[in-house]
Prior knowledge:
By secondary structure, the chain is an alpha+beta fold. The chain has 6 helices and 13 strands. The strands form 3 sheets. It has a 7-stranded mixed beta sheet. The longest helix is centred in the middle third of the chain and has 23 residues, at 104-126.
Amino acid sequence: MAQSYTYDDNARREDLLDIITNLSPRETQLLSGLGTSAAKDIYHQWLIDTLKSVAVNAYVEGVDATYPDRSDPTRYSNVTQIVRVGYEVTDTERAVVSAGFNDRYAYEAQKAFKEWSNDTEYALMRASMGCGSGSAARQMQGVKNWMTSNNYTDASGASLSEAMLNNYFQDVWTDGTQVNAVYVPMKLKKKISSFTAGATKNVDLTDRRLVNAVDIYEADAASMVKLFAHRYVTVSGDTNNDIVGLDEDKWRIAYLRKPITRELSKTGDSTKGEVVGELTLECLHKDAGFYGKNHGDI
Length: 298
């Protein structure tokens, strides 16, 4: 009898694991960590104000009060951005037996929600203001573009030093608040973690982002600063590494429409759906943070 080989055996069952591995990045520190509020219109506005300058204040007994000039509140604004991720699965694909999921449509819906979160995180950090029209989409103004104050451009390629970082913190403190979170690319995260004021400390575990380990940095002008490696502070095409620091209590995400998953009208032999949401970024004060540019070549 001729010897049998596996190469010719059509009766062999396939060996296909019932799992799917996806290594695509999914960190969304701004979307997960900032507070939220409600927008009531596509043009979202809020007010800021200031106190009078400090001065010597001593009155003679019994005299009338004086009346310094009072400042009027100033309006800040941002526009809401519609973020959508669509998906479509043929009805035949939904009917066949697949590995890794029971229903391809449900699986694609889960993927789309994650993709929506990634795109929104990118916008929150980097988007440029666009008021929109019938042919152009509205875009919110993201964190980096809000930073017209405390905005530093160091000599190209200048290495971030501990003294430089503390000067950033001090400038924000001088303006009246303190940085409590820093967002940097991984290269700068590793550098800051090696500074002498870096430490591992007990922190509030209600912060969902702290499931993944973060470092805490202590400075004279900023205490308990959380350090996050952020994928969109610096992206492909940027020429240098940037750093962003925030007083997160002064930044919020305002939802006009919170994200939902919905099935769309059926027009053929497939099922269509999308994840859609509309939101903007509230910067309650542009001095509540800093933006440092050009720290070392990519």
